[in-house]
Amino acid sequence: MSTAKPLAIEARGLRKSYDDNTVLDGIDLSVPEGAVFALLGPNGAGKTTTVAILSTLIGANAGEARIGGHHLDHETDEVRSLIGVTGQFAAIDKLLTGRENLHLMGRLHHLPKTEIHERAQRLLEQFDLVEAAKRSPETYSGGMRRRLDLAMSLMGDPRVIFLDEPTTGLDPRSRRTMWTIIRELVAGGVTIFLTTQYLEEADQLADRIAVLDGGRIIAEGTAEELKRLIPGGHISVRLKRVDQLEPAARELEATSTDPDQLTIQVPGDGTVDSLRSVIERLDRAGIEVDDLSVHTPDLDDVFLALTGRPENPTSQKESLR
Amino acid sequence: MSTMSYALTDSMTMLRRQIRHMGRYASLTLMVIGIPVVFLLLFVYVFGGTLGDGLGGITGGRAAYLAYVVPGVLMMAVAGSAQGTSLKVAMDMDEGIIDRFRTMAISRVSVLTGHVLASMIQILLAITVVLGIAAAIGYRTGAGVADWFGLLGVFLLISFAITWLTVAAGITAKSPETASNTPMPLMLLPFMGSGFVPTESMPTAMQWFAEYQPFTPWIEVTRGLLDGTGAAGSDIALAVSWAGAIALFGYLVARAEFDRRGA
Ligand SMILES: Nc1ncnc2c1ncn2[C@@H]1O[C@H](COP(=O)(O)OP(=O)(O)O)[C@@H](O)[C@H]1O
Ligand SMILES: [Mg+2]
Prior knowledge:
The complex is a heterodimer.
Chain A: E1 7-18, E2 21-32, E3 36-40, H1 47-54, E4 62-67, E5 70-71, H2 76-82, E6 83-86, H3 98-108, H4 113-126, H5 142-154, E7 160-164, H6 172-187, E8 191-196, H7 199-205, E9 208-213, E10 216-221, H8 223-228, E11 234-239, H9 245-252, E12 256-258, E13 263-267, H10 272-284, E14 289-295, H11 299-307
Parallel strand pairs in A: 3-8, 3-9, 6-7, 7-8
Antiparallel strand pairs in A: 1-2, 1-4, 4-5, 9-10, 11-13, 11-14, 12-13
Helix pairs in contact in A: 3-4, 3-5
Chain B: H1 3-24, H2 26-54, H3 61-93, H4 96-102, H5 110-136, H6 145-172, H7 176-181, H8 184-188, H9 204-211, H10 215-227, H11 233-262
The complex binds adenosine-5'-diphosphate and magnesium ion.
């Protein structure tokens, strides 16, 4: 490779298994400095395990990795001083207040006292936590807790930030807030390694996306490249009469027809124009429509396209610590 | 900064964290200090009259028993903190923030030394309160300035040992419930020594046990220093050896278990 930028994260052949459950089966990663990298995968794919290995929390059974050029096993302290980790589960001290949590981090980073107080105040303001700063995180909403968690990771001014499912379980508004925060971090030049179950999130935030399944990376590329693998979005039209199924399918050049459900699938995105055109053409042909729904590609489609099987999150139990 | 001074700074930071926790766990803190006081009052006012007569001194009675029992109650204050420490450590290990600590460039053992130091402070507090109340109900020591320094050393040593042991118990425990139960036997040890009655009054098997358990030399040294009669060299050697061995054992187990839980 002749990329000019040095690599912030570099992993070769990472393996991890618990007893005879192989969680990671040879993972290679390279993330350039200043990039946002998303590891996309369903529940139980091994995302948290990957983050735990790269953030020095657990050891891999095989393979090696470097963060900022420092070897994970041989230069652990150098690695640790470069990274900030916001795990899937809140890593905060519930018996301290929000501000005390930040101060604790500052002290552990051996910062001078004034610096600690300034940084904590700045982060509280930036993350809209000033009001909550003197309360225990136990009283926080999910979004606030996530923001405090991230703020704690930032106290040490990390160069590489790990975010394990930063928006899972958040309401749409908190998710947007988190996205904005992540974009601001990127603007500051740090490297971000995030995991997510949502293609949309990876699409919104990441320069490069790797899809993790069965302990392997089954696809990697930009959001555009991944989406090209997917059949794309479609509009699903349910009709009222079974005898109109055939003419409707012909009129709209349907990709599939389902007589049982009285439904046809039409290629198209969810824009108003494409919807209007579908409705107008059906009107002109005198075909009655019962229902119309728009389907945008999601992780399910990526999975279907890549593995030929739908992902099945209900069969995987979330691991608890 | 060297690794050594980081270990020190980080331990102080973790101690601060634990002291904050103490405030939030106020009832647990109060219990640790309150229980030995209750035992002091119970033993002196309920059993003291009878037990004091049985001591075979010239005066006998409650006053004599008060003078006899104080070292034993002080050991209870040390042992009694064990349950609280073990419970707190076990609960702390379940906290998400421990994983955060593991990914930071800090001295790892500081997470544990923070607990140890906080617990030692709590024990010294309990000891001070017990001595204060004992004095208020008529206890008089013969200890001189040198004896008090000796006592401080002894208390630091004993609490250091017991605390490392209970930190190990807390880390090893499968759940907070087991964590608070494991140190229970520790609470009984002062009774099975020379803490509350002279060992000569016990059956032979108990006497033998009392002679070879750590609390007996600890109590004897404490008693000697409090009375101002000084402590026997052999008792001091035994007291220090026990404390050293227990502290080392607790430290090694706690460290190993803390590292193991991370992997
Ligand atoms: N400590 C552990 N012991 C045993 N199995 C584990 C452990 N941690 C994770 N696993 C297993 O590894 C797999 C991947 O888990 P995880 O990395 O948490 O996935 P994800 O974060 O993608 O949901 C799961 O099947 C999980 O049960
Ligand atoms: Mg996970």
